[in-house]
Write a structure and sequence with these properties.
Blueprint lengths: L3 E4 L4 E8 L11 E7 L9 E8 L2 E16 L6 H8 L3 H12 L11 E8 L11
Parallel strand pairs: 2-4
Antiparallel strand pairs: 1-2, 3-6, 4-5, 5-6
Length: 131
C-alpha cells in the first residue's frame, strides 16, 4: 500500500494519513490525536492528506498538519493516552496496536511509536459521501 497520493500541481506525492475507523468520532474535530509508527511524515509542521475508509473506499477528509509528535514505546501507554486516542483501556489499545502493526515491524513491543497531534488545515478539499 502506498503512503502518498500524486499531487499534479506540485509534481510530488502528497503524504497521507489513513484511518480504517473514526475512533471516538475524532476526525470531525479541528484537532485530534493518532498513535502511529514513528516516521518522517509525522514531523512537526508536515501537511498530510487525511483519508478515512468507508464502504470499501478511502474518502478524502481534507488536509491536516502535524502539531506535535511525542515518541513512546508500547509499555508506556497510559490510560490518558489510550482513552483520549482510541476510547478504550490500555490493554485493549495495546492489543489493537499489536494487530495493526504485527506485520509491519519485527517486534511490536520494541517498536517506536508516536502520539501525533493533528490540526485540520482550514479550506482544504473534502470528498462528500458517495453512498
Amino acid at each position: 500500500m502506498m503512503n502518498a497520493t500524486h499531487n499534479p500541481a506540485q509534481g510530488e506525492p502528497t503524504p497521507v494519513v489513513r484511518f480504517l475507523k473514526n475512533w471516538n468520532n475524532k476526525l470531525t474535530g479541528d484537532y485530534f490525536t493518532s498513535i502511529r509508527l514513528r516516521g518522517e511524515k509525522y514531523r512537526r509542521g508536515n501537511t498530510l492528506k487525511l483519508l478515512l475508509w468507508e464502504r470499501g473506499i478511502y474518502r478524502t477528509l481534507g488536509q491536516v498538519r502535524v502539531v506535535e509528535a511525542k515518541p513512546f514505546r508500547l509499555h508506556q501507554i497510559t490510560p490518558y493516552i489510550s482513552y483520549l486516542d482510541a476510547g478504550m483501556d490500555v490493554d485493549r489499545t495495546k492489543e489493537m496496536l499489536y494487530h495493526m502493526y504485527k506485520e509491519r515491524v519485527p517486534d511490536v513491543n520494541q517498536a517506536d511509536f508516536v502520539l501525533v497531534l493533528f490540526e485540520r488545515v482550514k479550506g482544504g478539499q473534502t470528498q462528500g459521501r458517495l453512498f
